[in-house]
UniProtKB/TrEMBL annotation:
This is Rhodopsin domain-containing protein. The keyword Amino-acid biosynthesis does not apply. It holds the Pfam family Fung_rhodopsin. Residues 43-299 form the Rhodopsin domain.
Length: 380
C-alpha cells in the first residue's frame, strides 16, 4: 500500500527506529474478526436452512464475500509472519536475504488491496438483494433506489479492483521497488515503470465506498419511517439495522488511516493500521449483513410450544401476517414485520381472527408454501 521515497527520506524515517512490534496486535484483531465472521455466516446459513432458503442470491453473495474476506485476513497473517507491524530497520536486520521479507510484506499489501474490493462489493450486493426481498413489498419506491445502488456498488467493486491491480505497471514493480530503497539490486530492471499516487489509487475508492455505505444505511430508515407497528417491535428492527453504523464508522476510520499514512521506507510499520481496519471492516461487515437474515432463529426461539416434525418431515412454524390483503407464495418474501412478530401477537391474532399459518412439507418443490386454515363455526 505504501509507496517509495528518496534515500534521504528513508534515512530520516529510520533514524529513530525502535523494537516496537504491533504484530501480536494485528494477529489478535485479525483472528478475532475472522471468528466473528465465521460464526455470523454459520448462524445465517442455519437460520435460512430452517425455511429451506440456503441457496438464495443474497446467501450466495455473502458466502463469496466471506471467501474473499478470509483470504484477505490470511494475507494479513502471512504479512505479519514476515515482519508486518515492525519497523523496517528490524525487518531488514533480521532478514537472512534482505530485503526479501520487506518485498514480501509489500506484495501481501498489494494483494490485500485487490481482494478486499470484491469482498466489500459482494457484501453490499448481498445486503441489497436482501433489502429487495424484504422491503420492496412494503415501500415500492424503494425498489428503484435499491437497484440503482446495486449497479453503483457493482461498478465500484469492478472499477476499484482494476485500479488496485494497475497501481503500478507492470504490477510486480509495486514490491520490487523496495530493493533500491534499501540499497539492494532488484532481481529485474526497474526501468520504464509507473505507479499511481497513494491517494489516487487507494483513497478515492475508499471514499466512494463510504458514500455507498451511507446510502445503504438510509434505505432501512426510509422503510421504517413508513411502517406502522408496535413501538417495541420497531425498536428491535431499528436496532438490528443500526448495527450497520458500526461498520460505516470502521470504514471512516480506515479511510482516515489510508489518507494520513506516512509514505516512505518504513512500510511495514506505516501500513499496520490500514491492514487492521481493513480486516475488521470486512469481517464485521459480513456479521452485520447476516444478523437480519438470521431472524428465523428468533421466531423459532420465541415459539412457546414448537410443533413436532410432521409425518412428511416438515417443521410446523406459526407465522402470522400483518395484513390479510394478499398471500405470499414464498417464505423468501417475508417482511421485517413478519420476522419480528412476537408469540403474544400470534396468540392475539389467533383469538381474534381464528386463523393460523403453517408451513406444510414441500420436499419435491423445495419451497415453502403457506396454507391458511380458517375455522368456520356453525350456529346451533
Amino acid at each position: 500500500m505504501a509507496t517509495s521515497s528518496t534515500a534521504g527520506e528513508v534515512d530520516a524515517l529510520l533514524s529513530d527506529h525502535s523494537t516496537s512490534n504491533r504484530g501480536p496486535e494485528m494477529l489478535g484483531a485479525c483472528i478475532t474478526s475472522m471468528i466473528f465472521c465465521v460464526i455470523g455466516l454459520s448462524i445465517r446459513v442455519w437460520a435460512q436452512s430452517l425455511i429451506h432458503r440456503i441457496w438464495t442470491v443474497d446467501c450466495i453473495l455473502i458466502i463469496l464475500a466471506a471467501i474473499f474476506t478470509l483470504a484477505t485476513a490470511g494475507c494479513v497473517i502471512a504479512a505479519v509472519a514476515s515482519g508486518m507491524g515492525q519497523h523496517a530497520y528490524w525487518v531488514i536486520s533480521e532478514d537472512p536475504h534482505p530485503p526479501e521479507r520487506m518485498a514480501f510484506v509489500v506484495e501481501m499489501s498489494y494483494i490485500i488491496t485487490i481482494i478486499q474490493a470484491p469482498a466489500l462489493m459482494f457484501t453490499k450486493l448481498s445486503v441489497l438483494v436482501f433489502y429487495q426481498r424484504a422491503f420492496s413489498t412494503i415501500v415500492r419506491g424503494v425498489r428503484w433506489t435499491i437497484w440503482g445502488l446495486f449497479a453503483f456498488c457493482l461498478g465500484l467493486g469492478v472499477a476499484s479492483t482494476i485500479v488496485f491491480v494497475c497501481a503500478c505497471l507492470p504490477p510486480q514493480m509495486f514490491w520490487l521497488r523496495v530493493y533500491p530503497i534499501f540499497g539492494y539490486e532488484a532481481p529485474q530492471p526497474l526501468e520504464d515503470y509507473t505507479c499511481m499516487p497513494q491517494r489516487t489509487h487507494l483513497c478515492i475508492p475508499l471514499l466512494l465506498d463510504l458514500f455507498s455505505e451511507l446510502i445503504l444505511l438510509g434505505i432501512p430508515a426510509v422503510v421504517l419511517w413508513n411502517l406502522q407497528m408496535a413501538l417495541r417491535r420497531k425498536i428491535i428492527i431499528i436496532f438490528t439495522f443500526s448495527l450497520g453504523l458500526f461498520v460505516t464508522a470502521i470504514s471512516a476510520v480506515r479511510f482516515y488511516y489510508a489518507w494520513t499514512m506516512v509514505l516512505g521506507g518504513d512500510m511495514t510499520w506505516a501500513d499496520t493500521d490500514t491492514c487492521i481496519w481493513t480486516t475488521v471492516q470486512l469481517c464485521f461487515g459480513i456479521v452485520t449483513a447476516c444478523i437480519p437474515a438470521s431472524a428465523p432463529l428468533l421466531r423459532l426461539r420465541q415459539t412457546p410450544n414448537p410443533r413436532p416434525w410432521n409425518k412428511q418431515g416438515g417443521y410446523m412454524l406459526s407465522i402470522n401476517y400483518a395484513s390479510n390483503s394478499r398471500k405470499r407464495k414464498d417464505m423468501g418474501t417475508e417482511s421485517m414485520l413478519d420476522l419480528q412478530r412476537s408469540p403474544e401477537d400470534d396468540v392475539e391474532d389467533s383469538a381474534t381472527r381464528g386463523t393460523s399459518w403453517e408451513t406444510p412439507p414441500s420436499h419435491e418443490l423445495r419451497k415453502i408454501e403457506v396454507v391458511r386454515k380458517v375455522e368456520i363455526h356453525h350456529g346451533p
